[in-house]
């Protein structure tokens, strides 16, 4: 009987894939966390909306290359309109609110607020998809919003309407709405194609501000230009590609747990990149907010009404 080699032993492929999956998780967390300090860097010389326009113009170039390579099925008119709505809510509105909010909100604080989006998604699922909340789900929601309030109270203007923290919270709401609106499209087109079409729609909607972005970039420093390019490449293209690898290996529930690392990593990145050392209030509020998200994601939802699709934990 021939000896089994590493390539034909049962489980060998899984063993070899495991390091790749863990590397994919690390790249995903680092790339998505980097967006928050990179936005703050770019905002030193760019206005919020032109920054969003330039960022997604870069991302759109990569998306067009991927679409030409993979040639996914074109969406129907109805799906095309839904993708346009996804681009409007999940790309254009989300980034305009986040960028404007980060003019006054520290990168670490913004990352903690945005990463409470699964709480809002769960509440929308309660209303739209018929999911039910248990007592722990409601408790987790209250805990998470208490954490947001604690973070916001340490930022200029607190959570008052129009203040930076309230705009970042609005970005989290946009992300939650986007998850619900996009859900039917994933089943028909797949996650990567949905991301590609959504990014492309968002880039088109933001394109009216490209001339202003080009004008501001022409006089910007190399650091700002690098930040814009990194924002277009890392969180969008590379982050979603590696996230797909992680999902394939760990499954949605296990993989989502790694995303709780995004806010603390973003906070750590902001120290050398921006000189932003988080205060105790931000760290405590962030820990409370993420604890609430963990409770809702792991223990809070009782069940979905029969026939309704399960929501992804994160986008």
UniProtKB/TrEMBL annotation:
SUPFAM superfamilies: Multidrug resistance efflux transporter EmrE. The chain crosses the membrane at residues 20-43, 49-69, 81-98, 104-130, 137-155, 161-181, 190-210, 222-243, 255-274, 280-298. InterPro entries: Alkyne_AA_exporter, EamA_dom, EmrE-like. Keywords: Membrane, Transmembrane, Transmembrane helix. The keyword Membrane applies. The keyword Membrane applies. It comes from the Bacteria. Residues 24-152, 164-297 form the EamA domain. Pfam families: EamA (PF00892). PANTHER family: EAMA DOMAIN-CONTAINING PROTEIN, TRANSPORTER, DRUG/METABOLITE EXPORTER FAMILY. This is Drug/metabolite transporter (DMT)-like permease. It comes from Inquilinus ginsengisoli.
């Amino acid at each position: 009987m021939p000896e089994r080699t590493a390539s034909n032993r049962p489980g060998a492929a899984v063993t070899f894939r495991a390091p790749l999956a863990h590397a994919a998780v690390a790249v995903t967390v680092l790339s998505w966390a980097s967006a928050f300090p990179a936005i703050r860097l770019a905002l030193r010389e760019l206005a919020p909306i032109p920054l969003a326009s330039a960022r997604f113009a870069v991302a759109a170039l990569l998306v067009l290359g991927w679409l030409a390579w993979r040639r996914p099925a074109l969406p129907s008119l109805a799906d095309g309109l839904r993708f346009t709505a996804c681009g409007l809510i999940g790309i254009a509105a989300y980034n305009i609110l986040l960028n404007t909010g980060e003019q006054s909100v520290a990168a670490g604080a913004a990352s903690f607020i945005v990463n409470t989006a699964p709480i809002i998604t769960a509440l929308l699922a309660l209303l739209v998809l018929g999911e039910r909340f248990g007592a722990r789900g409601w408790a987790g929601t209250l805990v998470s919003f208490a954490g947001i309030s604690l973070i916001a109270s340490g930022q200029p203007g607190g959570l008052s309407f129009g203040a930076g923290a309230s705009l970042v919270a609005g970005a989290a709401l946009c992300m939650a709405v986007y998850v619900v609106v996009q859900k039917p499209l994933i089943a028909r087109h797949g996650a990567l194609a949905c991301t590609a079409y959504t990014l492309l729609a968002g880039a088109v909607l933001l394109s009216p501000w490209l001339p202003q972005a080009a004008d501001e970039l022409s006089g910007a420093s190399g650091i700002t230009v690098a930040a814009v390019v990194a924002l277009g490449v890392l969180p969008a293209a590379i982050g979603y590609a590696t996230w797909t690898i992680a999902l394939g290996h760990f499954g949605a529930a296990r993989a989502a747990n790694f995303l709780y690392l995004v806010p603390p990593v973003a906070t750590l990145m902001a120290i050398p990149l921006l000189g932003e050392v988080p205060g105790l209030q931000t760290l405590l509020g962030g820990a409370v907010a993420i604890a609430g998200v963990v409770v809702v994601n792991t223990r809070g939802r009782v069940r979905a009404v029969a026939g309704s699709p399960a929501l992804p934990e994160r986008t």
